[in-house]
Write a structure and sequence with these properties.
This protein is of the alpha/beta class. About 45% of the residues lie in helices and about 15% in strands. It has an eight-stranded parallel beta barrel with strand order 1-2-3-4-5-8-9-12, surrounded by five helices. A two-stranded antiparallel sheet has the order 6-7. A two-stranded antiparallel sheet has the order 10-11. α1 runs parallel beside α12, α4 packs parallel to α6 and α7 runs parallel beside α8. It is globular and about 50 Å long. The N and C termini lie far apart (about 35 Å). Keywords: Isomerase, Signal. Pfam families: AP_endonuc_2.
């Protein structure tokens, strides 16, 4: 596990963990969760050692977006050993629609409460027709996951959905025309801000439709668009980028977001994650 953990990092996170519990006015008295994608390379090479690293940081809540070549039984066993859990299981659109039963069974085996998808396949700009098909698909698969497996389906926005439509955007249309009983949302705050939307305003507008959140920040000076993509180097330590994180996170708490996951796609995530956790620890209500 090269560069995954150091004595300094372990001490820092053990200290940080105690502060999370002791700070009465902290916005995050609990430790945030972690998206497995942040540690994707390490998890692919050595899953148990990577979980040791995360455990040393005080992380207990995980969102897995891959099985990394392991069985769900093995992952659940490794998590249980460390007092960790998987609250959300991310899958691709094709598997979501064509292997719904397998997705549901895997999520249940991991102990997850949520299934999420983070990308709708499309070519060029996201269109009204694509949005309408997405709505139909989400309503159908969300119903199966809820009624057959007791799981909540969440869509993770990725920026391209904010094409103008009517008095709002295609993202508004997706929220408004999906069934709240079967379809919820995971806000990725970078991919909300990047196309020009206001994450805090959306959280206020749609409230508890947002159950999950990816917490990240965008490098200063980067101009966004609706492509749904930017170089991974533009993921920066929380609080050093463009997003108004205090306002966003206060709105998220008020909206009732259930799980907050740090996601850092940058090549130096191992340097940035400790600083991001420290930033969250110091945020006040």
């Amino acid at each position: 596990m090269k560069r995954s953990v150091s004595v300094f990092a372990i001490l820092l996170f053990l200290f940080s963990s105690s502060l999370f519990a002791q700070t009465k006015n902290a916005m995050f008295p609990e430790m945030p969760g972690m998206v497995s994608y942040t540690y994707r390379n390490s998890l692919s090479k050595d899953l148990p050692a990577t979980l040791d690293t995360l455990q040393a940081m005080g992380i207990t809540d995980m969102e897995f977006s891959s099985l990394f070549g392991h069985s769900t039984t093995d992952i659940k066993m490794e998590l249980d050993k460390r007092g960790m859990h998987c609250s959300s299981f991310g899958v691709g659109y094709k598997d979501l629609m064509e292997k719904t039963a397998t997705v549901g069974e895997n999520a249940k085996a991991l102990g997850a409460e949520y299934v999420r998808v983070a990308w709708v396949p499309h070519t060029g700009a996201f269109t009204l027709e694509a949005a309408q098909q997405t709505i139909a698909d989400f309503n159908a698969v969300g119903k199966v996951l809820k009624e057959d497996y007791g799981l909540t389906f969440c869509y993770h926005n990725h920026g391209y959905e904010f094409e103008p439509h009517g008095d709002g955007t295609l993202f508004d249309l997706i929220v408004q025309e999906t069934n709240p009983a079967y379809v919820s949302f995971e806000m990725d705050i970078l991919w909300t801000f990047f196309p020009g939307a206001d994450p805090a305003a959306l959280l206020t507008k749609y409230g508890d439709r947002f159950k999950l959140m990816h917490v990240k920040d965008l490098r200063k000076g980067i101009v966004g668009n609706m492509s749904g993509g930017t170089p991974t180097e533009n993921d920066v330590t929380l609080g050093t980028g463009q997003l108004d994180l205090p306002a966003i996170l206060r709105a998220a708490k008020k909206a009732g977001v259930k799980h907050f996951y740090i996601e850092d796609e940058s090549p130096i995530y191992y340097q940035q994650v400790p600083k991001s956790i420290a930033y969250l620890q110091n945020l006040k209500k």
